[in-house]
Amino acid sequence: MTMPDQFAGVRYLVDDVQAAVDFYTTHLGFTLRTSAAPAFADVTRGPLRLLLSGPASSGARATPAGTGPGRNRIHLIVDDLNTEIDRLRSAGLAFHSDVVSGPGGRQVLLTDPAGNLIELFEPAH
């Protein structure tokens, strides 16, 4: 069992490790921690360690059939959702959903180059 002050790790399967690294570090504020591209890399943002596994990685080979990307997502909290949407759109990124509002706040979904979902969430004030 890991200690509570260590990174929380999430594995995303990606088609192109370098494209995923570029996406997360350029657009979403992640920092490259290690890279063994084209098989694997990991990037961090705060306490989140995102493991990017390409087709040649052991993590990708261990995935059961029928569990493709897109069902689960990482959740990133932002201060101003509209500003983030404008910034990412001006960088040429497309969104997977419209903005959705609920009692807890507002959110929008975008995808990384492999189709994995990222939720940008602005909490209600």
Automatic annotation (TrEMBL):
InterPro entries per UniProt: Anthracycline_SecMetBiosynth (IPR052164), Glyas_Bleomycin-R_OHBP_Dase (IPR029068), Glyas_Fos-R_dOase_dom (IPR004360), VOC_core (IPR037523)
Any matching Pfam family: Glyoxalase
Residue span(s) of domain VOC: 6-123
Signal peptide: none
SUPFAM superfamilies the UniProt entry points to: Glyoxalase/Bleomycin resistance protein/Dihydroxybiphenyl dioxygenase
Name this polypeptide is given: VOC family protein
